[in-house]
Design a protein that fits this description.
Shape: globular
Oligomer: single chain
Number of strands: 10
Order of helices and strands: EEEEEHEEEEHE
Number of helices: 2
Radius of gyration: 16 Å
Length: 187
């Protein structure tokens, strides 16, 4: 089991042993933000600002952002946010998090390309007591690379904490994620 500890300015992974009997594990992030994630979820990261919480089946757990066919969500820090808009411009929330200059593979199927879509919902959502994140939900499609026909649809949900410099991106509608974020703790 992993407990992730963060240096004050960056998301840094530091594995330690925790009780095997616990139902959830703390994922300690920037500025005292702690998410309690189910023990069945696995955490991967590059030791900086790209932390991937894998929540289900995943063919390439150590794959980077936009690795297809890997259920989970991302917890991103300042460096990722700085390059999180198309053409690697800073993420502002005016468009979906999409750090790329070309068509990326669809989250559900590597044979299709993803097309970011329109804003479907926005507002403020609780991330633990006393903290609100700018929440956005984007509709997106997956299209055939050969003829552009729509093959599937998905939503990309984002929670952005600008003061803390944390962005959470979920392309899988992870059912427990809302609960995990509402019950986060701040130290």
């Amino acid at each position: 089991m992993l407990i992730l500890a963060a240096a004050a300015a960056t998301l840094t992974l530091t594995p330690t042993i925790a009780s095997a009997a616990s139902a959830s594990e703390p994922l300690v992030l920037r500025k005292g933000l702690t998410l309690y994630i189910p023990g069945k979820w696995r955490v991967q990261g590059d030791g900086t600002d790209w932390v991937h919480v894998i929540t289900g089946k995943c063919g390439k757990p150590k794959g980077g952002y936009n690795t297809p066919e890997c259920r989970g969500f991302w917890v991103l820090g300042p460096k990722a946010i700085k390059q999180g808009d198309e053409l690697f411009n800073p993420y502002t929330g005016k468009r979906p998090f999409y750090p790329a200059t070309d068509v990326q593979q669809c989250p559900a199927n590597h044979k299709w390309g993803q097309v970011p879509g329109k804003l479907a919902d926005s507002g403020l959502r609780a991330v633990g007591p006393g903290h609100k994140a700018a929440y956005r939900k984007w509709n997106a499609t997956c299209v055939s690379y050969t003829d552009g026909k729509v093959k599937s649809r998905y939503t990309q949900r984002e929670w952005y904490l600008p003061k803390t410099k944390v962005l959470i991106v979920d392309q899988w509608n992870t059912p427990e994620l809302d609960f995990v974020l509402k019950n986060a703790l701040w130290r």
